[in-house]
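Example record

The entry below shows one chain as it appears in the dataset: sequence first, then structure tokens.
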Amino acid sequence: MLIVLGFDAISDSKLTSDVNWGCMVRSSQMLVAQALIFHHLGRSWRKPPEKPYNPDYIGVLHLFGNSEACAFSIHNLLQAGRNYGLVAGSWLGPYAMCRTWQTLIRTNREQADAVDGKENFPMALYVVSGDEDGERGGAPVVYIDVAAQLCSDFNKGPSTWSPILLLVPLVLGLDKINPR
């Protein structure tokens, strides 16, 4: 497990560590980082044992640094997740985390369009949930028409192919596994 100590304080909290509360944030960062590495470097790419490292790999790492200057930092995730109840130092679930990524990526995309058009997240994102709001834990269903629309929106028009990351905010059970 990764525990990070001594990063810049998170907004008003004065917290400089993710000890005892950051596991969902960090695991989601690892998932998104892996998707970006697959996208930029391919599934078979492995980090070489010695430097120099691939510039695309270094670019992905820089997105996840522990400061507000890094697009997908713990600081920016918590800021984007305020509407979903994300607060530094508290437990959070997969639904809030997935919706936070959706918000952060949308914000990042809007800022990129306004500045230079260079996006940090080169794929569509689909948060799959079972209910309209996703919080009641219905069985997740992937709707092809929704995925196609998200890819079309990402490409700013129809395209023959677009990468997409599916996030399924599913709790298999704190006390038991839901059989649905």
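Notes for this example: The CA atoms of residues 22 and 98 lie 15 Å apart. The chain has a mean pLDDT of 84.
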